[in-house]
Amino acid sequence: MTRRYSSRKRILVTGGAGFLGSHLCDRLIADGHEVLCVDNFFTGDKSNIEHLAGEPRFELLRHDITFPLFVEVDEIYNLACPASPIHYQHDPVQTTKTSVHGSINMLGLAKRLKSKILQASTSEVYGDPAVHPQTEGYWGHVNPIGPRSCYDEGKRCAETLFFDYHRQHGLEIKVARIFNTYGPRMHPADGRVVSNFIVQALKGEPITLYGDGKQSRSFCYVDDLIDGLVRMMDSAAEVTGPINLGNPQEFSMAELAGQILAATGSKSKLTHAPLPEDDPRQRQPDIGKARQLLGWEPKVPLAEGIERTIAYFRGLASA
Ligand code: NAD
Ligand code: UDP
Ligand code: UDP
User: Could you tell me the pLDDT band of residue 2, with boundaries at 50, 70 and 90?
Assistant: First the structure.
């Protein structure tokens, strides 16, 4: 679809070459907009967006958002930040800088342009939650000095900055708290559980279950999540969030391993490894606000999303 010029927007997606960012670029291009994808390729990859290279409404800029950025756009989706524990712990100072200095730069940009800005926040702001399922009103249980803190506290500070720019400068902000999301274009080596288990199952290698495997997560398929982000950006000005976006269906990691083994037909065995420090024991979004304010809820069940993700990783293996 190519929009009439009057309804076509110029949209900046930071972290646009990453897993979620590349799907968001696809969606915005399909909706007829112009997209400026900004990425420093720390965890993202050009292969995620190379199919958009010939698209005249798509532009790619290599840039690190911890440095100022002067461009002209109508809307900003701020997704830049490594998201998997092994990547965000690789250079923890840079992770905090990306969330804090990066947000200040993107908020400064939005302030100059008087444009809407959406922050990709995270369920990690709840830490190892004492409230279950997690509602947006819960302030969280986060270790400020542990190995996950660079990500958790960076994202919490980014939320503070978004709300202060809103209060102090009248900026139109949207804060989405994203829960575990999976699907094609997850990095095969980024250590996240869905990609790890699928890659291990396809290779016939042991499935690495951390701890007793009873810790839970709730997994959202990427297409559902992207639809939630776009609905949030398009919501009324008074809808600032934070709003949880995720799939409330909760599974233990042992159950997830069983599902992936069954779906791949793999003969891989389970192997146990120690639970990483500060690993949250449980996680499930309360999505009442998203339902009510965005008319949104996920549609793709885990079994179907897992099938599509397995197909993607099989394709990578044979490429
Ligand atoms: P990803 O690692 O695939 O994507 C992040 C992208 O940001 C990469 O392309 C990376 O190169 C880029 N980036 C990192 N630092 C940058 C910087 N300083 N300047 C410019 N680009 C930079 O991760 P993802 O899963 O696509 O996550 C995208 C966003 O969504 C992140 O902000 C993450 O915190 C958030 N999020 C994701 C999940 C999830 O389950 N995938 C859950 C909660 C929140
Ligand atoms: N900024 C940017 N692009 C812009 C406008 C601002 O990257 O188009 C950066 C700028 O470098 C500054 C930050 O955003 O460091 C915050 O801007 P703001 O105007 O809020 O603060 P100030 O410039 O007054 O410190
Ligand atoms: N996990 C696991 N085996 C793996 C990778 C992760 O058992 O190979 C567990 C991990 O300990 C955590 C859950 O799966 O309890 C989700 O981990 P992930 O890194 O995907 O996301 P996050 O912890 O950030 O929610």
Answer: low
Residue nearest to atom 21 of ligand 2 (CA): 108
How many Cβ atoms from other residues are within 10 Å of residue 215's Cβ?
A: 19
Q: With a 6 A CB cut-off, is 305 part of the ligand 1 pocket?
A: no
Interior angle at CA 312, CA 308 and CA 313, nearest 5: 120
**Mean pLDDT confidence for 117-123:** 98
Residue 43 near ligand 1, beta carbon < 6 Å: yes
Which ligand neighbours the alpha carbon of 245 most closely? 1
Q: Enter the tokens of residue 283.
A: 């996680």
For the stretch 74-85, pLDDT in tens is 999 999 999 999
| Residue 222, token pair as written in the block | 């990427």
φ/ψ (deg, to 5) at 244? -70, 135
Ligand 3: atom nearest CA of 200 is 8
Q: Which atom of ligand 1 is nearest to the CA of 44?
A: 9
